[in-house]
Amino acid sequence: MATADPATVTGTAPTAEKPWFTLAGADVARELGVDVSSGLSTAEAAKRREQYGPNRFAEAATEPRWHAFLRQYRDLMQIVLLVAGILSLYPLKELGTGLMLLFLTVFNAILGLNQEGKAAEAVAALQKMMIVKSRVRRDGELVELPAEQLVPGDIISIEAGDLVPADGRLLEAATLEVDESALTGESMPVAKSVETLASPDTALGDRTDMVFMNTSATRGAGSFVVTATGMATEVGHISGMLQTQEEVETPLTRQLAKLTNQILIIAGASVLLSVILNLSRGDSFDTVIVAAIAFAVSAIPTGLPAVVTAILSGGTQALAKAHAIVKRLRSAETLGSTSAINSDKTGTLTLNQMTAVELTIPGRRYSIDGKGYATEGRIKHEGGQPEVPLEQFLLPMALCADAVARDGEMIGDPTEGALVVLAEKGGLDVARTRERYPRVAELPFDAAYKLMATFHNMQDESGRDVVRAFVKGAPDQLLSRGTGTLAPGDLAPIAVDDGFLQRYSDENERLGKQGLRVLATARKDFDAGSFDSQADLLPLLDGLTLLALVGIVDPPRPAAKTSIATAHSAGIQVRMITGDHAVTAEAIARDLGIEGRAITGAEFGAMSDEELLDQIDGIGVIARVTPEHKVRLVETLKRKGHIVAMTGDGVNDAPALKAADIGIAMGITGTEVSKEAAAMILTDDDFSTIVRAVEMGRGLYDNLKKYIRFQMGCLTGFVVTFLGASIFNVVGGVPFLPLQTLYVNFTTQVAQAIGLGYGKPSEGLMERKPRPPDEAILPRALLSWLITAGAIMGLGTLGLVWWANDAHGTQFARTMGLTSFAIANLIFSFTAKSETESIFNLDTFSDRIFLIATGVSAAAIVLGTEVRLFQRFLDTEHLDGRHWLLCIGVALPVAIASEILKWFRRRTRARSTTVPGTAAAPEAAG
Question: Which residue among 73, 93, 187, 693 is least enclosed by CB atoms within 10 Å?
Answer without folding.
Answer: 93
